[in-house]
Amino acid sequence: MTMRSFDDLNAHLRExxxxxxVVALLGWDQQTGMPSGASEDxxxxxxxxxxxxxxxxxxxxxxxALDHLSAQGSTDxxxxxxxxxxxxxxxxxxxxxxxxxxxxxxxxxxxxxxWIAAKPxxxxxxxxxxxxxxxxLRKEExxxxxxxxxxxxxxxxxxxxxxxxxxxxxxxxxxxxGLMALLEALKGGTPPAALGMTMPVAEQRAVxxxxxxxxxxxxxxxRLDASEHPFSTSVGLDDVRITTHLYEEDLLxxxxxxxxxxxxxxxxxxxxxxxxxGVARHAGMGMHESQSRFWENTIGxxxxxxxxxxxxFGNPTLTADRLWAAQHxxxxxxxxxxxxxxTYNLHILVRFELEAALVGGRLAIADLPGAxxxxxxxxxxxxxxxxxxxVLQDVHWAAGAFGYFPSYTLGNLYAASLAVGMARDxxxxxxxxxxxxxxxxxxxxxxxVHQVGHAMDAPDIVKAAVGPRDHVQDLLxxxxxxxxxxxxxx
Length: 490
Known about the structure:
The chain is built from 20 helices and three strands. By secondary structure, it is mainly alpha-helical. It has two domains: about 5-150, no CATH class; about 165-485, Neurolysin, domain 3, CATH 1.10.1370.30.
């Protein structure tokens, strides 16, 4: 059927989204409950659906609709943003063959299953062939999208439109010395004590389940499950699911993970679905990560939140002060998801540099574990004992998500500036947080970020929300203030 109106185009996009939701549901099942022997068939299922979705993008009707609607010259901001976003999507898809799309989907399913088996065994060699296949296919895809551009730039742009490796390198060029200077300054203070508590996973889960509603996550349109690597996924407009990973001996890890994923889910649950699928979408993964990192760090690591959440664990020895101090203990370690805020972005720096070398052909897959371990010694002063806590710790490469890691640091930068603007606009912010009242925070984010969807790109959304800001300086200032206080230096 020819698409002659924005309603026609959005109806077509809605059908594509629903098929993508089915793919997301299959992915959620693979990470939460699928039998280990089902990976081959699951890969074929996802591959077939991916081929169908690709065909719906590239059969010519979308391109015709874009040309027809552009000729109408609408100045409606939603129409303008829809045309911009769909043109970007189509430009990436129309140059990639259906066969490659299907091979990629199958390779991702296979690589994930190989990673699940390899990680606990620390057996990188068994995962390496799947990783090599997936990397080759992603490079093939990137060159198909733009043969004149660096494949790694194309990969980064897929997650954060308008961002490339040079942007990321410049960002780290300012962040790295600032973080190193803060780490050096903290050596002159007194490190806070580690939490040193254990709690049965079932009891932790009950606390977390209660937190979900308090933070505003709509459980009528979502659920909490367990997975090897915590994640959030949208499998429908009214079905946004999260997972977490709880450890009996590490309350802070689980608490941070759950709050992080709630931040992602609140964003998805708050998108402006009434504007159509061309705009009712996130504005890149850096924007998405800003929401999760804002809730995890700005809110979750605040003194006010600790006063609210500590009593919920039901242990009188877990005081708010003890919890807050333990959250601000800097201790360089091998695991990214357990890292403190000061060293976290150095973990991302390591991955960015290794990815760039892998994709650029300067680093072989077989040499990746050694390069990883060397980078951790040089950047964080950490000795990596095995590949489980080293190169196999993250799911991203097993999912084919090359170029995603910089989004975490972009998210930290955006979140720091959003925090400045929110504190300016909400003078009773911390009193409300201490009382467990998060409506004001959600509404502020809802109006300035969630309901914007992708009507603007991420940098413009942040600028419209808080005005011109130096995001790197905002992050360094926030970290310096809190961590120096925790170390008795302020």
